[in-house]
Amino acid sequence: MINQQDITLRDFVISDKTRLIEVLNHPDVTRYLSSKIPFPYKEVDALWWINEGSRQGFVKAICYQGKFVGCIGVNPGEFEYQRAGELGYWLDNAYWGKGIMSHAIELITTEVFRTTPIVRIFAAVFEPNMPSKKVLLKSGFHQEAVLKSAIFKDGTFYDNHLFVKLKNRD
């Protein structure tokens, strides 16, 4: 395992452009991500993300030993869902299985609960994505529901496993 002090979150910067394109063009990384992330991922997509997309919600670049390796974010709901946020994340597959993502999830959920009115953070996981389910459980989430055939991507239906973490409201 890695040293947790080597994992940091920061805003996206223009120098992340090349790594964004590299990592988000890897099919293993994007297999279970939303289709709103373009594939193939081009320079124009990376520039939009750095300058606009990553400025919406609470979105951060994940760095390991100073190197940009992934992305994590909580997107707040609207209207009657304003006190909930959806967690999303991805990590360069060269860094999978090292404990980076579980620490990044801990960092962002702690910060969101501390600095926003959000009291519920949830994540939607494609049925076959066992590593994502495991990292959420390790990070203090619990499985709340399974929505049958709720995801349709690339011609395939998937069950959507919903995981949730609630702010301690004692």
TrEMBL record:
<dbReference type="InterPro" id="IPR000182">
    <property type="entry name" value="GNAT_dom"/>
</dbReference>
<dbReference type="GO" id="GO:0016747">
    <property type="term" value="F:acyltransferase activity, transferring groups other than amino-acyl groups"/>
</dbReference>
<protein>
    <submittedName>
        <fullName>Acetyltransferase</fullName>
    </submittedName>
</protein>
<dbReference type="InterPro" id="IPR051531">
    <property type="entry name" value="N-acetyltransferase"/>
</dbReference>
<keyword id="KW-0012">Acyltransferase</keyword>
<dbReference type="InterPro" id="IPR016181">
    <property type="entry name" value="Acyl_CoA_acyltransferase"/>
</dbReference>
<feature type="domain" description="N-acetyltransferase">
    <location>
        <begin position="7"/>
        <end position="169"/>
    </location>
</feature>
<keyword id="KW-0808">Transferase</keyword>
<dbReference type="Pfam" id="PF13302">
    <property type="entry name" value="Acetyltransf_3"/>
</dbReference>
<comment type="similarity">
    <text>Belongs to the acetyltransferase family. RimJ subfamily.</text>
</comment>
